[in-house]
Amino acid sequence: MPVAPADLEPFILELNRASGAVILPLFRADHGLEDKDKGAGFDPVTQADRGAEAAIRQLIAEHHPDHGVIGEEYGEDRPDAEWVWVLDPIDGTRAFISGLPVWTTLIGLRHHGAPVLGSIGQPYIGEVFLGTGERARLITAEGERPLQTRKGTRLSQALIATTDPHECFRGEAEQAAWRSLRDSVRLARYGCDAYAYAMVAAGKLDLVVEPGLKSWDIEAAIPVVEGAGGVVRHWDGRPIGQNGGRAVIAGDEPILAEAIAALASTSP
Amino acid sequence: MPVAPADLEPFILELNRASGAVILPLFRADHGLEDKDKGAGFDPVTQADRGAEAAIRQLIAEHHPDHGVIGEEYGEDRPDAEWVWVLDPIDGTRAFISGLPVWTTLIGLRHHGAPVLGSIGQPYIGEVFLGTGERARLITAEGERPLQTRKGTRLSQALIATTDPHECFRGEAEQAAWRSLRDSVRLARYGCDAYAYAMVAAGKLDLVVEPGLKSWDIEAAIPVVEGAGGVVRHWDGRPIGQNGGRAVIAGDEPILAEAIAALASTSP
Q1: Could you give phi then psi for residue A85, rounded to 5 degrees?
Q2: Are B99 and A199 a contacting pair at CB < 8 A?
Q3: pTM of the prediction?
């Protein structure tokens, strides 16, 4: 009998627990940082990130040895398998090193190349935002509640977020696109990475715009946001494929269209 | 026998619990917002803020009827009393309405006009950062641990924060002062309000700069940051008095001096 994505929900929660067990002793502790990308921006990688990805890969190898894995730290392993896990144990390393509990653990699952299950976990707070593309829910120690994006907000009233208004938007065209959008909305928040996607799923933010995502930065969030009724697209309106890129995460289609128009208004 | 500030630690924790009990059912719920300050910037006040301040004032009136109270929502009551509580139940209302768990509950206590006890609480996460000016600790459901600022970081390696790089710094001189500082450091974080002060106390951030604080935005944090070994000053190097103002929160004196110099380098 073929496996359904929902059958893997207990396993994705187990992966979240295993990852959190590695990461939490290192959160707010003194720990070694590495700079992967010396001289070309600030991109710390913590021992926690590596240890957690190793722990997750170990569990996948034990329980689902035929599944593929793509992770930020340890690369690709059978990326063309029927089922492929896409991992980023610490999305938001800058928040992490600053002690701020808005970093997240991203675990996504592809089936035949399409994202079908994903979780955005925050183990310090004790939250897992879990989605299947059709439904999404928040799981905490207190229980579960369904997630639903906010509908019908116009851009002028929107609460939006992006990771960094200065460093992420490269070149004058991207900077101008961001300023155009920011000047159109009610309130902008910064520095929350994928935690902001979870807040779109929870109906608290209306829009997140990111200029340069990798697959592991966004893929786990797609089933969560879409399961809550939202949309995840490229700045040009196309679906996000397997390579990430410039992404808009929105509560509904109308505000997505408004955001895409605002971003395009300054483009060459 | 005169009361010592430490005798009031159980009471300040009780105030935190009472405040959290009012606020948490409204966090991430749909709730009414008011705009206190129409046409002059965005300053939402939630029903949660008002309800929590009323609950805290009620407990103070019952248990310490001779104490004064100063709060953001309900003004001043015996501000010249020997003991005066300074309250902001939801510091970081923008984070709050965005669903982000970096808003805090600020409760400070003055004795003869000087801050002697304070707490920075985050009830959704379940944290209270408590300080006496001489010691500070983090209290969670798991237990307590001492707080200690990071020492010896140079400005060029510093992790810093401010609430909003666009809206808070008013006029070209403040904007230039902020850019001068930001361009001198390793990493800047935004939007964390008093949660960032707690991260200075916890040794994760080195510096926070804020241009326009009220007494209730900062006073509760002074015994926490100073109790952890840090310093809280005006941009001009003087102590913060009872009126707030432009504040620098720093892990130690050398980085405070570097920050003050960087801020002053662009001033008229």
Answers
A1: -90, 140
A2: yes
A3: 0.92
